[in-house]
Amino acid sequence: MAGLELLSDQGYRLDGRKATELRKLQARMGVFTQADGSAYLEQGNTKALAVVYGPHEMRGSRSRTLHDRAVINCQYSMATFSTAERKRRPHGDRKSTEMSLHLKQTFEAAVMTQLYPRSQIDIYVKILQSDGGNYSVCVNAATLAVIDAGIPMRDYVCACTVGFVDETPLADLCYAEENGGVSSLALALLPRGGQIALLQMDARLHQDHLETLIEAAMTACKGVSKVLDEVVRQHLQEASVLTGE
Amino acid sequence: MSPMKLCVPGDKLCSAEDCIPGTGVYLRHGYIYSSLAGYVLRKNEGEELPVISVVRETETQLLPDVGAIVTCKVTSINPRFAKVHILYVGSTPLKDRFRGTIRKEDVRATEKDKVETYKSFRPGDIVLAKVISLGDVQSNYLLTTAENELGVVVAHSEAGAQMVPISWCEMQCPLTHSKEFRKVARVQPEYLQA
């Protein structure tokens, strides 16, 4: 793309970050009292809200109940005002359905569903402002919401989108970078065990670079997990102060 | 109380040889990890190893488990079974109702074939029951009242007043003095007012 240098010679990106630098992450848990668990997360300019209900009795089609574990029902949607041009169809389009499916697969790997047979856990995520890395921000927000709801999980699920430009992996892509022809890869990781919950990529990348890209993604996810850990511990401290323990 | 340790999901708490896993934790490769964000609680149960569990201030949603005593409200009856909404598990209220079924043969322990659900429950009754099964794909939780302490605890007569139990199978309305048939739960001695 003429005139748009994704990685300058000095190693700076479009928004002034270095190649392995993450965007500023801010999050709050327990933003809604009506839901069982909720969280609001901002990663740079991308803002997402996640809400968790459950575990409760299976609603809708009863035939989908699993006798030995809970069903996780995810819904991903974007607010109409989240993108540069007003979104005409926020729900039900192909991308939202695919994202919802990815979120479901990711959380089925982390949540201990076998403790809640024949029930359903709902995870709803809404993007309020979209500036790249939508899937990753959703996963991070949903992790905090699930922890807030008190649903047991094996570990945090941290996600990050990485791209490959000029033989260098870039961590945490923003919208301009994603659309600037960068091969982007989204990775959801359980940081403590180093287990990958989901890896998604639909760009073209030489197989020699795959190893470095995944390594960079895992490092970025571990960085995200540190920030999320801080947020959870602070929330617990605040909650304990209120209940007088 | 000594300050309790905070933990988050994925925190390694101790080795499986030091403690027995309780609630809110899981076992992996011989180590005990936390699965909730909360406080670590170590309790000595009197056996050799203490039980380690993670607790939160707000109780998480409890699910009816096999063998649990539940409080439910009858929603509809049928010659073969009664359908109920499970409201409380033990003494914990549920945020959301679960559906249950009490089959005709599970109402009483004796003379199971002579049971008439119309004479055991009516819609609107509050019933104490025990979970016998989580049910298969199509059905709800299966409950039983086939014990002396299980059965109807609160029922309203056709006149609208709350009825008083007079035997294990009858309740009487205080206003009209008419008797109605129910499968009544035996009141625990500690709940009887002197």
TrEMBL record, chain A:
CDD domains: RNase_PH_RRP41. GO terms for molecular function: RNA binding. Residues 21-152, 155-219 form the Exoribonuclease phosphorolytic domain. Pfam families: RNase_PH, RNase_PH_C. Signal peptide: none annotated. Keywords: Acetylation, Cytoplasm, Exosome, Nucleus, RNA-binding, rRNA processing. This is Exosome complex component RRP41. It comes from Pundamilia nyererei. The lineage of its organism: Eukaryota, Metazoa, Chordata, Craniata, Vertebrata.
Automatic annotation (TrEMBL), chain B:
Keywords: Cytoplasm, Exosome, Nucleus, Phosphoprotein, RNA-binding, rRNA processing. One of its GO terms (biological process) is rRNA processing. The keyword Transport does not apply. It is found in: Cytoplasm; Nucleus, Nucleolus. Its main location: cytoplasm. GO terms for cellular component: cytoplasm; nuclear exosome (RNase complex); nucleolus. Residues 65-146 form the S1 motif domain. InterPro entries: Csl4, EXOSC1_C, Exosome_cplx_N_dom, NA-bd_OB-fold, S1_domain. The keyword Cell division does not apply. GO terms for molecular function: RNA binding. It holds the Pfam family EXOSC1. Belongs to the CSL4 family. Component of the RNA exosome core complex (Exo-9), composed of EXOSC1, EXOSC2, EXOSC3, EXOSC4, EXOSC5, EXOSC6, EXOSC7, EXOSC8 and EXOSC9; within the complex interacts with EXOSC6. The catalytically inactive RNA exosome core complex (Exo-9) associates with the catalytic subunit EXOSC10/RRP6. Exo-9 may associate with DIS3 to form the nucleolar exosome complex, or DIS3L to form the cytoplasmic exosome complex. Exo-9 is formed by a hexameric base ring consisting of the heterodimers EXOSC4-EXOSC9, EXOSC5-EXOSC8 and EXOSC6-EXOSC7, and a cap ring consisting of EXOSC1, EXOSC2 and EXOSC3. This is Exosome complex component CSL4.
